[in-house]
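Quick start: read one record
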Amino acid sequence: MMANGGITQREYWNGEVGARWARNQRRIDAVFAPLTAALFAEARPRVDSALLDIGCGAGDCAIVAARQLGGRGRVVAADLSVPLLAVARERAEIEALAGAPIDFIEADAQTHDFGSAVFEHAISRFGVMFFEDSGIAFANIRKALVPGGRLTFLCWRRMEENPWISVPRRLVLPLVLEPEATPADAPGPFRFAESETIGAVLAQAGFLDITVEAVDRPLTLARSADGTSRDAAEAAADFAIELGPVSRLLRDQPDSVRATARRLVAEDFADRALSGAVTLDAGCWLVSARR
């Protein structure tokens, strides 16, 4: 599975990007908290059941699931990134003591053999858009579910429906070469931006009772400790430049370009700050299907 720059997803998430995300996992989870809540409000995993977390990252959703499943449940959490998995295992030892045990595994959910009819539920928070062949990947995930087992995941809608991405991107684009357009069916954050694509791929993989619901949530990119707009804007710009999708545009740029990008984004965010917080909207699809 290719990321930007012609490298594979495994290489991308085991390199500098994965290490940076691992260092900042608490910030990332805090920003995405409203979306995580929406995911679990729909998923409602059954107590004492077995659950598969796809693209688990630093373990936030796996830990939430473990708490909800209880001590007799079981969580298997899969990701390609060794740095993120290391953080996930460390967190789980501290944060999920009263919940289900979590088995974090380095695995590509497209090809890994999870077994047949093992899990009552599979979930993912933005981890299903990067498969080289989505049909094969979802068929593999379906095979791991028991008959009647459920799949619940979040994926991004179109960029225009995600100001938390499109606003800083619009400011950064004049500083860099316009990136090549990504084919609609290529792996990437907006692989399932159109609801029809999701339904078709899941149906092809054999899923039933497919529902695709639009979910909109405000994301607080940063909040200042003293309530000042400037500090909140600087922190939010840092998040956008270092951890958001805009970071890919600046990945190979010189420090001078990165500094200019950060300044422009911070200035824009300062005008948007309210009560010491910078908040922009996010638009997702909340998808549910059944084996």
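The CA atoms of residues 120 and 269 lie 43 Å apart.
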